Fold this protein.
Amino acid sequence: MKIFNFHLMPYAHANLDEIRRQGTSWVTYSNSFYDPKKGADLYHEYLDQLEFADELGFDGIAVNEHHQTAYGMMPVPGVLAGALARRLKNADLAVLGRALPLVNNPLVIAEEFAMLDNLMRGKFIAGFVRGIGAEYHVMGINPAESHARFHEAHDLIIKAWTQPGPFEFNGKFYKFKHVNPWPRPYSEPYPRIFTPSSGSLDTIRWSAQHRYTYCQTLAPIAAVAQTFKLYREEADKAGYQAAPEQLAWSNAIYVAETDEKALRDVRPHLEAYANDFLSRNPVMMSPPGYSSVASVKRVRAMKQFMSQRQSAEDIIAKGVVIVGSPNTVREKLAAYQDLAGFGISLTKTQFGTMPHKMVQENQIAIAKEVLPYFKNRLPQPIKAAAE
């Protein structure tokens, strides 16, 4: 298994009472609650944590993109990826993912990712997403055009990476007389592509058809297992057998000396993360036309764990996160890998309001007690499922 240190970069000083009053940390939670001095300190702490993860031996470092939310301060992930690219010595670098339909010129993403791929000498991973529903309110993009814009932007980027320029591109949404981006990607023919999603059927099928690595965002492990099963079925239809490294699970892990201490230490930060930072206005998150009916039903079923306030025990019991002693964490992660069949763990070591020192202690514990055990581990067959 490959274990990446994935960071959301939340505004850890958020006013949780105001978020609860608003019912969301997205779009309508005012930026008047952002203190630039505290925010600047957080950016440097978070970059320090990701550079530290590289030193500790994590297989990859991952950042992502979100807009107008305290949940993640990364509206332009390329800025942070660029800051990391010259500092990382061993780990891969992933941008999980740029929201293709939200930009008016996808060639900017083609150029940005090609630059990062050159800086990383091929150890870069390009993430492509549609963006969450709320971000269509933020950017003023018609959500009913989301799928079409995504596919057209994707096709333009791949063509720009693989076909010598200059050439013309005349799509429905994007029209260019001259497509001739410099630089070209370092990787041949282009960087590895990851496609994160909340469990959309459309994204699962499309990812499998393109043989991209599908990343399941935060969800109970039983739902994750069903999603990855669907991916493998779609791969079979496409004429190949999906490999574990084509399946990535986004999770959060916290390790302490004992289960009791781990739960006690992590409780306020985990509950703030799940109940406040993840709180969303359902109208904003599911604008008309954004998803197919089948995908809406499936994602809602998967995200029921976010529909009401929960205790840390509830979240842990559902297999959304892993918290405990080294033995407990190893056993659960192995069991979850066997159940769902993934080969990549996108692990958050910081979440919610967790302070810097606590994060680094958690990173050290994971590096010492978890990483070595999973270095060459593959999913193992579950006897009960085979009987």
Remarks:
- The domain at 2-386 is CATH 3.20.20.30 (TIM Barrel).
- The longest helix spans residues 36-56.
- The chain has a mean pLDDT of 93.
- Residues 1 and 376 are 6 Å apart (CA to CA).
